Amino acid sequence: MEGRGKSRVEKRERFSQEALGHLDHLYRVAFHLAKEQQEARDLVQETYARALDSFEQFSPGTNMKAWLTRILYNYFLDHYHQSKRWVPLEKQSSTGEEGSDYSARVAGDDPGPEAHILNKELHVKISEALRKIPEEFRAPIVLVDMGELTYAEASEALSCPLGTIRSRLSRGRRYLYKHLRGYIGVEVQEGRKRQK
Amino acid sequence: MNCIEADELITALVDNELSDLERDAIEGHVKDCLRCEDIYRQEQELKRQVRLTGARITAPSDLKERILSDRRIFPGVAESADGRKGLSWPARIVFRPAYAFALLVLLVLPTLYLMWPASQPVSMAALETHEKILTGKISFVRSGTQEEVKEHLNRSVDKSFAPMGYDLSRVGLKAVGGLVQEVGRNRILVAVYEGSGPSLSCFTYLDTNGGVPPNARLLFDPEKKMSFYTFSNGQTNGVMQQVGGRVCILVSKMPLQELLALARSIATPSY
Fold first, then answer.
1. How far is A31 from A43, CA to CA, in rounded Å?
2. I want to staple B11 with a disulfide (CB 3.0 to 4.6 A). Which of A3, A170, B66, B95 is the partner?
3. A76: helix, strand or coil
4. In angstroms, rounded to a whole number, what is the distance separating the alpha carbons of residues B23 and A8?
5. Is B11 exposed, middle or buried (0-12, 13-18, 19+ CB in 10 A)?
6. pLDDT in tens, A6-60
7. CA count, 13 A, side-chain hemisphere, B70
8. B8 vs A contacts (CB less than 8 Å)
9. Long-range contacts of A109-112 (CB under 8 A, 24+ apart)
10. What is the C-alpha to C-alpha distance for residues B149 and B250, in angstroms, rounded to an integer?
11. What is the three-class DSSP state of A135?
């Protein structure tokens, strides 16, 4: 009996240590979901507490990163729905137009790089731009592009069909690109095409 | 295949999430379509830059400490197998020199960091401190229970005075930690409350003059025979009251009237 108890403690300890290996990933996700840094920290800490509460439900050999991300995201949603404390960032500058077509509003949003501080680093711009797009599009980008989750893992973490992940990623990247127009440049291939 | 149909397949091509059949179809389209080729290259570059941005964001070092010292996650840290299990929280810390040193550093560093110029009114510094706590610019020592928060703060000023130690559970808040702040000659005990509503910081210090901000509004509660001062900075509100030789300031982003009602309900007259 005692041996079984000890084994459970050891198993739990091993699980905790392994879970800690995903700390940066979880913080990265929380950082882009929560409103403030402190909330991101709380979100990650609570994720670990919840994960450890139910660590026996985790099947060894499956993807712990996706499993932890799912706990974090569910906690974020629960907390948001319960207390509204974690407000998705796009609501911060709500103008009452949330129901209107987001794409149309984004198109005229950015006055171009000239209007911005020139020395602002690109990664800061990307983080800012991510915070401007709706959470339903932001989450898949954070999980797939930053967290390097597959569509199947992101689908599990966000509890939505795989096709939804693909379509939200597609639309989310378009929105993001519009916010970053002038910062992320791709050489136009027109000349090459015309020569064909 | 038209370009609208191609959009999602381009995304999946960038992410290497296509079947062979889909890959052949979209690669053929991208090769022949200038618009879709540009979109493909844009998405590739965007994904690369987003990944690089993510790689630069790492968890703050104190977050790992917080998790390691959270007894819900690592009970073994607090309950070692060598007979110290039944000891109280302060006693366990005494037995752990590294932990005690870390705690000392955590207590001393915020104290030094939070030394404000003497000209700064305590009330205004309190609003600013609360904002910094919310945004993570100021870290604080997390404790397990309300009593531990109170004891920890009390010990940090050599038990010369105690924080107010309010129980705010009825408004869904509980004390989660604290820090010591210095404003001029005042040592201020800050208890941090978190829960289902906006976070709240309770500042307690010794002062018979109060340090009332010049633009504060005064409200006299005839029932309790106590004066309450309210003041704000942006969305951050403060309510100050004096209880005997101690001054208490509650600071929160909850609406001012709500904060005032809370302060009045928990205040105990000193007579």
1. 9
2. A170
3. helix
4. 47
5. buried
6. 577 777 777 888 888 899 999 999 988 887 788 889 899 999 988 888 877 787 7
7. 22
8. 166-167, 170
9. A109/A178, A109/A179, A110/A178, A110/A179, A110/A181, A110/A182, A112/A181, A112/A182
10. 16
11. helix
Pick from B15, B57, B74: which is nearest to A16 by CB?
B74
Three-state DSSP class for residue A3: helix
B64–chain A Cβ distance below 8 A for any pair: yes
User: b/e for A87-104, b at 16 or more Cβ within 10 A?
Assistant: ebbbeeeeeeeeeeebee
Distance separating the N- and C-terminal Cα atoms of chain B = 84
Q: Which residue of B has its CA nearest to A82?
A: B196
Distance CA B247, CA B263 (A): 12
Are residues B72 and A49, on separate chains, in Cβ contact within 8 Å?
A: yes
Any B CB within 8 A of A195 CB: no
* Cross-chain residue pair B17–A151, CB shorter than 8 Å: yes
Q: Do A124 and A10 meet the contact criterion of CB atoms below 8 Å apart?
A: no
Question: CB-CB: which of A27, A40, A176 is closest to B46?
Answer: A176
Beta-carbon contacts of A28 under 8 Å, excluding residues fewer than 6 positions away, are: A142, A146, A147, B54, B57, B58
Query: What distance in Å separates residue A41's CA from the closest CA in chain B?
Result: 6
CA-to-CA separations, B136 to A4, A36, B119, B140, in angstroms, rounded? 41, 8, 25, 9
Q: Answer whether B213's CB lies under 8 Å from B124's CB.
A: yes
Measuring CA to CA, how many Å separate B175 from each of B152, B153, B164, B209? 12, 12, 11, 27
Please tell me which of the candidates B15, B46, B196 has its beta carbon nearest to residue A177.
B46
Model pTM above 0.80: no
The CA radius of gyration of chain B, in Å to the nearest whole number, is 27
Closest residue in A to B66 (Cα–Cα): A45
Round to whole Å and give the CA distance between A111 and A101. 19
- Cβ contacts of A126 on chain B, cutoff 8 Å: 49-50, 53
Percentage, residues of chain A above pLDDT 90: 27
Helix, strand, coil percentages (3-state) for chain A, rounded to 5, are 70, 0, 30
Query: From the CB of residue B198, how many other CB atoms can be counted at a distance below 10 Å?
Result: 21
Between positions 48 and 77 of A, the ones with CB within 8 A of B are 48-49, 52-53
